[in-house]
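Consider one such protein record:
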Amino acid sequence: MKKTISWGAVALAGAFITGCANSGASGARAEPAALERGRALYHQVSNSLYGTSADRLAAEKATAARFQGALAACMKDKGFTYRQAPSEQQNGGPIGPDDLSSLTEISDDFGIATAKRHQAEVADMLRTADEANKMTAAEEARYGKAVGSCTGVAAKAEQQVSPAVPADMGKELAEIFREVEKSPAVADALAAYGPCMSAAGIAAKDRSHAYELALAEFPPADRGVAAMEADPGWAEAVAFEKEAAAADAACRRPAQDQAFAAAAPRLQAFVAKYQAQLDAAHADWAEVRAHV
């Protein structure tokens, strides 16, 4: 049976976490000026190193296209016309260095319904291509063997489109927030996440758990769009995802606000230390945007 959550429960969760945020010195709201400065600095750093969600999506699609192109070229050399497989990648995904709860982006949904719909569209396209295939069983076997040998060749030739994040910078950024999450204000807000989500009707201990709960509600995409969306569970799963994301936002934002505020001085020092590298990374992403 599908889970249902009332918007009243989500509002109750918001009230629960607000009450926690207002109780005691360690649970006070994040200082507004520090929060604004920390959030702006983090977004500057994150967008320079990792790109925006749209940047990451474009880069991932371009990388997949390069792989498919290399595979097609190899297959042509073997005397076959390669049936290119469309990319199932549909969103750039949230960025949260080292999967830190305080840093993972807060959004209106988890991107599951969008990804599932695209996967179903891919399944329809592949099914149509298979139905149009006129190869004999023997020809299909030779084709499959050629694809197998060419996959390794294409993987070696594949070039990642997105700029590489310098390991020392990524590690230092994650360490800043790993330490920040140990501070009383952030630790208290993170500890309140589970009870807050329970108040909203979702037994999730963290954002990743909430995502997995929502994902489990969706019907399989391999049957295609029409069959998937005709499934009685589809509409309920879409609604549950949005409700779970809304609860996650209400329950996790206090911790994220506290983390940004607490990290502001360290982020300022990080930007000063790595300004040249951040500028170079920003320029690399601008180059990606210009060519994908």
Remarks:
- Residues 6-14, 17-26 have pLDDT under 50 and may be disordered.
- DSSP finds twelve helices and no strands in the chain.
